[in-house]
Design goal:
Length: about 450
């Protein structure tokens, strides 16, 4: 982190410092977690439904913090910057900090595939630049600021993922990042419980544009029906990618290499190239094209773009293909799930070898549409002739019923523990190809790990 004075911090967050003698004190790291405090840090205590970081201010000082923000009065004689809202202060400080650097910022959002697209864009840009990218799930109003604080004088490009589950969140993230290039992968049904409709989801995703200058670039998926409605309506330099629709960049000659990878030809302007994508799924072709457009916009050669795609490594637990010692292939995609990504995973599984088994769990935040969408997913798995369709979780009872409606070979378990105890030995055969997928809150990595142990 670039060193900044406490006076600058106070000004950035519209706060009042406890004593002006601390104005010139310099901090070189910011944290919201007292467990991670090092000497010289700035500690920002956050409040939630079940926690209040203000209770740990004295502990933060004891561990070596130079200063703490606070929305409450303290009796500390050390450096405290008083603010009205520490969460807003965190965002305001990140907005100030990123403004200290003259680097391009790539912002990425979407209902499905934003993390994979972010990783692929970063992989491409790393062929030429020193890139800072969002790690893990640091894509919200706390995680994105903490990512921004990792920008250093050596950083040449920032690739920032923006997640949300309600209106206004991406607006706040865009205010911090002010992206030069904004990528929207698609508009699906994730978080429809809070946003009401796909039109609402589109509106929320388009908040990424709220703080972009008119001469900046939007990179959009022309194959997505909701994003298509933006054609001719944005004030930005808009670049479109797709397979079904051929615009600024498109792909053809798509070849699935089992559950290992996928290959295609990409056509961009007057340049064509063949590329090997080291993860499975036709949706990865779209991610690769988004990365190619961003790379091209930031001056990379076709050779650099191709190499970046082919060297791509996905985030842990996202379409990770694991081969066990006994010959079973596990497609570990348990990081998250929604109806679109669930069906994409089933598509990948359908190209696997041996017995094809899907172990699917509840998809959250679908609100009134939950039963219908789970039922439809079960129908889809049966249509794809998956040999065994295993459904786990309260809402997944509807998925089980959907699979049975088409004569699918379906099995239902109320809990993951019940399946691990009673189902793995009986239903998962050695040498099978097994897809494991559910929403993050289901913690299906336990199932993936157990299969790896015994099969």
């Amino acid at each position: 982190m670039k060193p900044i004075t406490l006076k600058s911090v106070a000004q950035a967050v519209n706060g009042k410092i406890s004593d002006e003698k601390y104005n010139d004190v310099v901090i070189e790291n910011i944290t919201t977690d007292t467990r991670k405090i090092s000497e010289g840090d700035l500690f920002i205590p956050l409040k939630g439904e079940n926690f209040d970081g203000h209770k740990f201010i004295e502990q933060a000082f004891e561990k070596g913090a130079l200063c703490c923000l606070s929305a409450e009065n303290t009796e500390s004689e050390k450096a405290v910057i008083y603010v009205s809202d520490t969460r807003k202060a965190l965002r305001d400080l990140a907005e100030y900090y990123i403004s200290l650097f003259d680097i391009p910022v790539v912002g990425i959002t979407g209902s499905v595939g934003k993390t994979t697209t972010k990783d692929m864009i970063a992989s491409v840009l790393m062929q030429k630049y020193n890139v800072l990218k969002t790690e893990g799930n640091f894509n919200n109003e706390i995680g994105l600021p903490l990512t921004v604080f990792k920008i250093t004088e050596d950083t040449q490009v920032a690739v920032l993922e923006m997640g949300m589950n309600s209106f206004g969140e991406i607006h706040n993230l865009s205010k911090i990042a002010k992206p030069d290039i904004a990528v929207i992968t698609n508009v699906g049904v994730s978080h429809i419980e809070n946003l009401g409709s796909r039109e609402g989801i589109l509106k929320a995703k388009c908040e990424i544009f709220d703080f972009m200058k008119d001469n900046r670039t939007a990179v959009l998926n022309i194959d997505n029906d909701m994003l298509q409605t933006l054609e001719g309506k944005t004030k930005f330099n808009t670049l479109w990618y797709g397979v079904e629709n051929k615009k600024d960049i498109y792909a053809d000659n798509i070849v699935k290499n089992g559950v290992e990878s996928i290959s295609c030809d990409i056509h961009m302007k007057d340049e064509n190239f063949s590329v090997y994508i080291p993860v499975p799924g036709e949706h990865m072709v779209l991610n690769a094209m988004a990365a190619a457009l961003v790379g091209n916009k930031l001056g990379l050669t076709v050779a650099e773009i191709k190499r970046g795609i082919e060297e791509f490594v996905p985030t842990k637990m996202r379409m990770a293909v694991i081969k066990t010692e006994k010959g079973t292939t596990i497609i570990n995609d348990v990081y998250n799930a929604n109806p679109v990504s669930m069906k994409a995973g089933i598509d990948v599984l359908s190209g696997g070898e041996g017995e094809k088994i899907c172990i699917l769990g509840d998809m959250f935040e679908l609100g009134q549409f939950a039963k219908e969408m789970h039922y439809d997913t079960g129908v889809y798995a049966a249509q794809k002739k998956i040999d065994k369709i295993i459904c786990i979780g309260e809402i997944s009872k509807s998925m089980y019923e959907g699979a049975l409606s088409l004569g699918g070979n379906a099995f239902y378990f109320e809990t993951q523990d019940e399946f691990i105890e009673k189902g793995i030995e009986e239903l998962v055969s050695e040498g099978a190809t097994v897809l494991v997928k559910a929403s993050r809150g289901m913690h299906f990595e336990k199932t993936a790990e157990k299969i790896q142990e015994v099969k």
